[in-house]
Amino acid sequence: MNNDNSDQSLVSKYRPLAVAAGIGSILGSGIIVGLSATITVWQTGLGLTNGQVGIISGALTFAIALGSLLAGQITKSFGLVRSFNWLNLIYAIGALACVFSNSYVMLLIGVVVTGFASGADLPISLTVVSHDSPDEKTSASLVSSTQIFWQIGVFMSYVCAFIVSKMAGATGARVVFTILAIFALITWLWRTFSTKFKVFHEEGNHRWAEREKEANVTEKVSIKTVFTGSNKRKFMGFFFSILIFYVCWNLLANTFGQFQTFTLVQAHASQSFATGAGIVLNFISLLATMAFASVAGGKYRNKFFLVGITVQFLAMLGLAISSHALWPIVIAIGAYNIGNNIAGEAMYKVWTQEAFPVEVRASVQGFINGFSRVCCGLFALITPALVVPSAIRNSMFGFAGIVFISFIAGAIMMHLEKKHGVNDF
């Protein structure tokens, strides 16, 4: 009992750092959903062509991917803490460029700058949290909790976009991006000038220096030494298990997000019912993420993962074999949203932070994030062909197969963690 109280007190002590990192997740999901929800408003207000709209949307995806891919290089060039502190200022500059844009080119530049900063911030923020955490259990709990903020960002963006939807021209879109810029500026100030965070960073540096000293580390840890050194088989196993799991999960999550409303409308739901159901399902996702975060650092984590991945698989099969009746589809989608968030991105974040040395975590997670984004961007090219009524049933069977592949990769990862003593459960 005392151990549990001690663990909780450590989590509470370091929670402000997780919140500061989590706001980066709000900004990450905010720019994606915010642009998606307001792109037609920008099109009307700035007189954009359909081609320009497509370029802006695609540019955001690839800017986020590029930022993720270069996260490790950014920390190497500017330092982990300095990168963590200042990326949100760059995000704010990009968002403000969008706010004051009066042309396609200026909006495109603003979106690219904001997307790049967002893509780089996520892996760097999580690395700072795990670097400063006093132990792996606290780290797992804090890292998984940042996923809650991603869901909050999605919800906030939809609500803001709905509230401003009646404003004339591009005014509503400018308001949404102003809110994002304000959040980014507040986060930049908090991360940069917080004396508590400075103490956390210094203590983290001291702890890692002591661990290296105790382990008699003489060679500087780098991507090269990790993947070509004496433990290369272990780290390659971790890397490919996590990569396959996350790419499969992300393909399904991104594609499903695009046609959830479409599927409900095809089942003869009204647009208002489909939109309202989307808000309710977002709350379900948030609760599921919170449930996983509560066990992320403990012995029940793997059991939650197995339940979540099974629920996802059954939900896909349910959608594949269901008729066009509305409520069975609503129930299946609700079940998917629960399973998707119990065995999903939060699990991926924890695995990545646990499995690799702190010196390369930003690089590894940045690469996996970026590679996954590129895969999703390319997969989106065929998404319209997968969601037409005549193809949806077969698509769901295919998605069930993707869930099964992600389960195999996840099961291998859990086995490898146990084999190599990464955790004791």
UniProtKB/TrEMBL annotation:
GO annotations of cellular component type: plasma membrane
Top-level taxon in the UniProt lineage: Bacteria
Major facilitator superfamily (MFS) profile domain: residues covered: 17-418
Signal peptide: none
Topology versus the membrane: Multi-pass membrane protein
Record's keyword annotation contains Nucleotide-binding: no
SUPFAM superfamilies referenced in this protein's UniProt entry, alphabetically: MFS general substrate transporter (SSF103473)
Localization, UniProt: Cell membrane
PROSITE patterns: MFS
TM spans (from-to): 17-42, 54-72, 84-102, 148-165, 171-190, 235-253, 273-292, 304-327, 370-389, 396-416
Keyword terms of this UniProt record: Membrane, Sugar transport, Transmembrane, Transmembrane helix, Transport
Keyword match Signal: no
A Pfam entry, by short name: MFS_1
GO molecular function terms attached to this record: carboxylic acid transmembrane transporter activity
Protein name: Sugar transporter
Annotated source species: Secundilactobacillus pentosiphilus
Phylogenetic classification of the source organism: Bacteria, Bacillati, Bacillota, Bacilli, Lactobacillales
